[in-house]
Each structure stands twice: as C-alpha cells, then as structure tokens.
Amino acid sequence: MIVVRGPSDETGFSDSLARSLGAKLVGVEHKLFPDGESYVRIPADLGGETVIIVQPAHYPQDKHLLELMLLADAARGAGASTVVGVAPYLAYTRQDKVFRPGEPVSIRAVLRALHAAGVEVLVTVEPHSRSELEHFPGKALGVGVMRYMASQLAPGLRDPLVLSPDLGGVGRAREFAEALGADFDYLEKRRDRVTGEVSVRPKTLDASGREVVIVDDIISTGGTMALAAKLLLEQGAKRVVAVCVHALLVGEAYAKLKSAGIEDVVAANTLPVPPGVEQIDVAPPVAEALREALGSG
Ligand code: R5P
Predict the structure, then answer these.
(1) How do residues 10-22 score in pLDDT, each as one tens digit?
(2) Pair (271, 197) in one structural domain
(3) pLDDT of residue 195
(4) What does the pLDDT look like over 210-232, one tens digit per residue?
(5) H-helix or E-strand containing 282?
(6) 102 and 233 share a domain?
(7) How far apart are CA 65 and CA 79, in angstroms?
(8) Ramachandran region of residue 181, left (φ > 0), alpha (ψ -120 to 50) or beta?
(9) Do 173 and 96 fall within a single domain?
(10) Which residues line ligand 1 (CB under 6 A)?
(11) pLDDT in tens, 46-60
(12) Taking Cα atoms as reference points, which of 1, 4, 60, 17 lies closest to residue 269?
C-alpha cells in the first residue's frame, strides 16, 4: 500500500494517513508548464500496489481536481492494483441538484470525470450529503468525523449546547452532541438563491447562560456562522465556539467570525486554514474506514 502526497495537501493529512495505515509515503514531482498546465509524476514503483492518492480539492479547485485525475491516470498506467483517490475536501458538493432550470448537477459531473480518469475508490470527509456520492460509478466512502472531532474537543468543553445552523445539518449536531452526552438543537436559516442573503430564526433553544458549540460541515464566507453567533450572544449565550469540518474561510471570513463574537474556530485538517484556526487531524478515522473498505484490517 502506497500513500501519494498530492500537490494540494499542505496540512500533513497524507503523512498522518500513511502513519495510521503503516503505508509508505511518496511525494509527487509537480510543476507548471509556462502556459499554466500542470505536470505531475509519481517517482515510485507502483506495480501491483494499492495506491492511495491524497489531493484535497479546495481553491483552485478545478486545478486540484484535474491534478487528481492526472495522478490517477499515472497510477493506473504504472500498474497499480487499485487506485484510491482521497479528496478530504471535495469541491462542488453543494451543487448536488438542479436548483434552477439549466444548471448542472456539478458533483455528478466531477465524480464521473474522476472515475473515468482512473479513480476506482473515492474517499472524502464529511460530504455535504451522503446521497451525492451515489453519482460515483465506483466505490465511494464519505467518512463522517463529527463524533471523532467531538471526542478530541471534549476536554475543553463544559456542558455545551450543540447547535446546527440549519435543519439540514442537525444530524451532524446530533452526532457531535451524542459523543459528548450534550443537548442539541438547530436554528432555522433561509438563503435567497439569487441574492445569497441569509436570515436566521431561532427554533426551540434557550442559549441563555450556555456555552454554545455551532457545528457545520463548511464555513465558506462565514455569513451563516456569524449570524448564528450574533443571535445566540444576543440571547445571552456565555460563549460561542464554531466547529466545522471544511474551513474554506473565503476572503475576510475569519475576521467576520471573530467580530461576531466567536471565541474559537475549530476545523478538520481537510484543507489549509489561516492562522488562529485550531485544526484537528481526522486522518485516523479515514484510515480506519479505508482499512475496512479495502479489507486490510
Ligand atoms: C450549507 O448548506 C452549508 O452546510 C454551510 O452552512 C454553508 O456552506 C456555509 O456557507 P457560508 O459560510 O458562506 O455562510
């Protein structure tokens, strides 16, 4: 079994995954041609090996996804017995249906392209929805990490109230809360599909005097988290911590979270994050899921 560190992995995810699997780790020769095209080469003998390529697909996501395809093609061409693509963060998952006529199901197009390039098993962390991976023609694993993240954060939390910013994410809040033996609830959110404007209304929670952990899969612009935190602090919450898996933190998102009164921002190591964000290494539960899926332990 060989783990390949793709050029977009800057968080040490592949190193940790290789350690957890007891596998050899190899880097990639990578450069850009003068016209901007990517060149990749895996400098190892891959014949007969299970080759696990780690390539998070954050910005520039199109380039990172294409490099994963190139690496899969290289591994297949070099005689790998199985090619596994690990995109700890997988782009395009939020366009998992046609919201307005004329749109693509973007995640379907991406998953089909990855498979056609040679990815036989696809692994990602905490996908936006489980059903979107059904578009992958091979075997796909969406590794949930909420319980694992909760167990890592447990020592720093005191009787927290765990909240999802919306009903869609309440399953994550439930998993996180169950691992802590804590209460959970959700906030009602409305997003205007055209203007992108978000408004938040409370459901049945009383955050007054509580330490609140808001749990989401993605923080992108920070708008959802910042609004939720502001509302909860207005309701008398004692402290607000933001926990997400994928901290995209676009532009000034981190500053927005801090100025909304969020004390700590915690994310998984599925993509690089700005200074100040605490990162939890989630490669160990991914290794466990992979071992089970590949029948090697
Ligand atoms: C949406 O369905 C996701 O679960 C997140 O709530 C959303 O992507 C967060 O986006 P933003 O940080 O831009 O509000």
Answers:
(1) 999 999 999 999 9
(2) yes
(3) 85
(4) 999 999 999 999 998 998 999 89
(5) none
(6) no
(7) 22
(8) left
(9) no
(10) 165, 168-169, 216-224
(11) 999 999 999 999 999
(12) 17
Say how many Å lie between the CA of residue 216 and the centre of ligand 1: 8
- Report the distance separating Cα 44 and Cα 153, nearest Å: 38
Question: Annotated catalytic residue: which of 189, 230, 256, 258?
Answer: 189
Same domain, 70 and 107: yes
Quote the domain boundaries for residue 9: 2-144+282-294
Same domain, 178 and 104: no
Distance from Cα 198 to the centre of ligand 1, integer Å:
10
Average pLDDT, rounded, for the chain: 94
Name, in order, each residue with C-beta under 8 angstroms of 33's C-beta and a sequence gap of 6 or more: 39
CB 149 within 8 A of CB 269: no
CB 226 within 8 A of CB 232: no
- Decide if 189 is catalytic: yes
CATH of the domain at 255: 3.40.50.2020
How many domains does the structure of the chain reveal?
Answer: 2
* pLDDT at residue 296 greater than cutoff 70: no
Are 10 and 101 contained in the same domain? yes
Question: Burial of 173 by CB count in 10 Å (0-12 exposed, 13-18 middle, 19+ buried)?
Answer: buried
- First-to-final CA distance of the chain: 13
pLDDT (tens digit per residue) in 148-193? 999 999 999 988 999 999 888 999 999 999 999 999 999 976 677 8
Closest residue by CA, ligand 1 atom 8: 218
| Contact present, 111 and 135 (Cβ < 8 Å) | yes
